[in-house]
Amino acid sequence: MATRDEIIHSPDSGRPIELYEFGMQSLVFRYTSADSDVVFGGFTYLKRAIARESVIANVGDRAQLYPISLPSDDLLAQAFIPRPPPITVSAVVFEIEPEETPTPTRRILFSGSVRAIELDGRMSAARLQCTSLESELGREFPRDVYSALCNNVVYDERCQSNPALHQFVGTATALGGTQSGPTIRVPGSAASGHDFKGGTVSIFGSSSVRMVIKQGSQALGEDPDDLTIVFPFDEVDDPIGKPVTVTAGCDHQLGSGCAIVHDNVRRFRGKPYVPTRSIFATGLT
Fold it and tell me: In the chain, how many domains are there?
């Protein structure tokens, strides 16, 4: 039996390998920069051209950015194109010494979240800009944005809107895709009258949830029951023929989403009279 310290100080020791985990609610991406796939802790970490880069000091935010590079055609990178997903994407990087016995020790190198993405000039490589948990805790509070939009997260403890009043339960009948992303068809969802943009689709009896970024438009020749989601469902959680719950979102505006859709003006936490147009950017006319 060889401990981690014995392996590290041995002239015949192998090198540690790095493993990466990115979480989007119930969807988790597991990658490794090793020469082949790695099985650890009961999970398979897929071989990818992924690597950590030098830390970048972000003076304006008083935080540090941890860039992680990977191919731009990877599903994780695609989730940030053309805009970041509307949910937090966690990021954990750790290393193990595969020759350590009886079980390799998991040594955390980085833990935080993905804030943004950068693409190189040829659009072939992506750089995920991550911030650590320490940096997030060091940011100034309160973090409310002084804008016309509400600062609540819909259905959270400050919003308190009842999601049961803004849901449709149906059966998924088809999966597809457009230039905007993967789609799931739920007949009857459009006729329910709810606006599902910014909402979610969940499979009954499963923890799989996907954010809805677009609803089909008849004016564009689309099926109004087609919902564009951030990521496709896994093959294990194939929703076809299963009951799904579609929950409406909110545009966070006082006069529409908050007042008309959710009837929740008393809990609105925005500044509705803040101008939405800056004369310094667009001029007086």
Answer: 2
Q: Are residues 20 and 129 in the same domain?
A: yes
Task: Mention every residue, 6+ apart, whose C-beta is less than 8 A from residue 162.
Answer: 155
What is the sign of the dihedral through the CA atoms of 135, 83, 28 and 47?
Answer: negative
172 in Cβ contact with 238 (< 8 Å):
no
**Whether residue 133 sits in one domain with residue 96:** yes
Kindly state whether residues 120 and 29 are assigned to the same domain. Answer: yes
Strand partners, 181: 178
What's the token pair of residue 252? 């966070």
Q: Are residues 17 and 95 in the same domain?
A: yes
**Token representation of residue 3:** 């401990």
Contact 68, 50 (CB under 8 A): yes
Q: Do residues 8 and 133 both lie within one domain?
A: yes
Element at 5 (helix H, strand E) = helix 4-9
Residue span of the structural domain in which 191 resides: 163-249
Model pLDDT for residues 244-256, shown as the tens digit of each residue: 999 998 888 888 8
Strands (E), 133-238: 167-171, 174-178, 181-185, 200-203, 209-215, 226-229
Q: Is 156 left (phi over 0), alpha (psi -120 to 50) or beta?
A: beta
Residue 233's Cβ-count burial label (10 Å; 0-12, 13-18, 19+) is buried
Is 36 within a domain? Answer: yes
* Contact between residue 159 and residue 264 where contact means Cβ atoms under 8 Å apart: yes
Task: Answer whether residue 283 is part of any domain.
Answer: no
Tell me the pLDDT tens digit for each residue of 27-68. 789 999 999 999 998 899 999 999 988 765 554 444 567 889
| Domain assignment present for 277 | no
Predicted TM-score (pTM) of this structure: 0.55
